[in-house]
Design brief:
By secondary structure, this protein is α/β, with parallel strands linked by helices. It has one domain (12-364): TIM Barrel (Alpha-Beta Barrel). It contains 15 helices and 10 strands. Strands 1, 2, 3, 4, 5, 7, 9 and 10 form an 8-stranded parallel sheet that branches. Strands 6-8 form a two-stranded parallel sheet. Strand 3 (127-131), helix 5 and strand 4 form a beta-alpha-beta unit. Helix 1 (12-20) crosses helix 8 (205-218), helix 2 crosses helix 10 and helix 4 runs parallel beside helix 5 (137-146). The longest helix has 16 residues, at 27-42. The protein starts with 11 loop residues before the first helix and ends with a helix. Bound molecules: 5'-deoxyadenosine (5AD). Residues 64-65, 154, 156, 197, 226, 228-229, 231, 284, 320-321 line the site of 5'-deoxyadenosine.
Length: 365
């Protein structure tokens, strides 16, 4: 299969054939082509986003996530305003164009409090991305007015049955539709980012192909995906409790494997369906393949890295999955490692805010 940049984007059947990787597909040449699409559509710059995981408090009980409310074995923290600003100052020092403020679903974060912090960070010349999970519409509105530029909310899987099992709704509430939330966020003027986990137990190739097709229909500005990594202190990650979960009953041959190669395929396909999006090579990819993951992701379609700026004493507590890459590195070491990777692959750090080309073009219309 050859990709003609002028032809229609890949359809569902073509996406599945890459994911399943039947013999008609030469993966190496496919990856070369997706790298070429990346170069043509978003260039050689790699945008760096300083990731500030400012609270691991969470009211949810997602069956896969290590910071779920019921995990009593982790210590909970929330950074003070001063700590958040100090982390953002590091982003300025390292010449990152933006920061990502990420948390669990922490109802103790007051919208006004965060709005004031967003204003301060914006004055420092940084773009601000928020990733705080599902919140009230008024909060999204208030933060947008305060200057927040982007919002990340993964829909995790488009298989609703699977999603509702692994992401139980809050008690007395109906399951939410994250696609609707993303559309709402776009209507408020945010650049919108989403993504999925790859290889969730019960996730089929068809599910994953549909996920990728949804990236296209949503014209996402940012797409972050990574392999599902089992956390032993979660119901899905613990073999004892795993068997009691009511997952979709699928043929084992249809199960998507949670491998580095599958993650690279998803990054590459995301680049094809949303050629102008910003696509990070995520920490989960750097974790599943500590040697090459970051590099290979960036050579197969990704154009963003999110170096962790969370103060080191808190990092271990933001353990959504085990052995998370860079957990024990200082902020400086994390930065140096990323810059080293960029040099090794001959790419350059981005300058400026690194807005998505897709978003900028939409704004012009
Ligand atoms: N493995 C991989 N990714 C995970 N996330 C949460 N738990 C895990 C896990 N066990 C991802 C989810 C979430 C993002 C912040 O981290 O996709 O949206």
């Amino acid at each position: 299969m050859t990709l003609d940049k002028t032809s229609a984007p890949m359809n569902f059947v073509e996406i599945i054939s890459i994911l399943i990787n039947n013999s008609s597909v030469d993966l190496n040449s496919f990856f070369q082509q997706t790298d070429e699409v990346r170069r043509t559509c978003v260039g050689e710059e790699i945008h760096l986003r300083g990731l500030i995981e400012f609270s691991n408090i969470c009211r949810r009980n997602c069956l896969y996530c290590g910071i779920r409310a019921s995990n009593s074995s982790i210590q909970r923290y929330r950074l003070t305003e001063e700590e958040i600003i100090a982390a953002a100052e590091k982003a300025v020092e390292f010449r990152y164009g933006s920061v990502v403020l990420q948390t669990g679903e922490d109802s103790g974060i007051e919208a006004d409090w965060l709005g004031k912090i967003v204003k301060k960070i914006k004055k420092m010349g940084l773009a601000v991305t928020l990733s705080l999970g599902e919140r009230d519409d008024q909060d999204y509105q208030l933060w947008r007015k305060a200057g927040a530029d982007r919002y990340l909310l993964r829909f995790e899987t488009s298989n609703r049955q699977l999603f509702n099992v692994i992401h139980p709704p809050l008690s007395n509430r109906k399951p939410v539709d994250r696609i609707e939330i993303l559309q709402k966020l776009r209507s408020l003027g945010y650049e919108i980012g989403s993504g999925v986990m790859i290889g969730i137990p019960g996730q089929t190739y068809e599910d994953l192909a549909r996920d990728i097709d949804i990236f296209r229909t949503l014209s996402l500005d940012m797409i972050g995906c990574g392999p599902y990594l089992p956390h032993p202190q979660t119901p899905l990650g613990n073999p004892e409790t795993h068997k009691n979960i009511d997952l979709p009953d699928i043929d084992p041959k249809d199960q998507v494997p949670a491998t580095a190669e599958m993650a690279f395929k998803v990054i590459a396909l995301a680049r094809i369906v949303c050629p102008k999006a910003n696509i990070p090579c995520t920490t989960a990819v750097a974790t599943i393949d500590a040697q090459e993951g970051r590099k290979l992701g960036l050579m197969r379609g990704a154009n963003v890295v999110m170096p962790n700026l969370t103060p080191v004493k808190y990092r271990k507590m933001y353990e959504i999955y085990p052995n998370k890459s860079a957990t024990y590195l200082s902020v400086e070491q994390t930065h140096d490692a990323v810059m080293q990777t960029l040099r090794e692959i001959g790419r350059i750090p981005g300058t400026g805010r690194g807005d998505s080309v897709a978003y900028l073009e939409r704004e012009q219309c």
